[in-house]
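User: Predict the structure for this protein chain, please.
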Amino acid sequence: MTYVNAQNVLPEELIVEIQKYVQGETLYIPKHEDTFKKWGVASGSRKRLDRRNSKIRERFTNGSTIDELAESNYLSVETIKKIVYSHN
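Assistant: Here is the predicted structure, written as C-alpha cells:
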C-alpha cells in the first residue's frame, strides 16, 4: 500500500470536510467492493484449488476413502472431510 497526500488528489472542500473527523493521521480508504477481487482470482490459485477439490470429490464418489485421499493429496483427514462433505 502506498501513501498518497490528500492535497495532491482530493478537492480542498473534501479535505476540509474530512478534517472535521480526523487531522494529521493516516487514513485508509478501502477499494469499492465492485473493484475488489476475491482471494486467488488474480493469481489463479482459486481456480487450481477448485479443480483439485472437484477431483477429490469425484474420487470420493468413486470409492476412495477419506484416508486415501488425505494421503495422496498431502492434506489432513479433516480437510478432506470439509471438501467432500461441502455443498459445492
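The first helix runs from residue 6 to 9.
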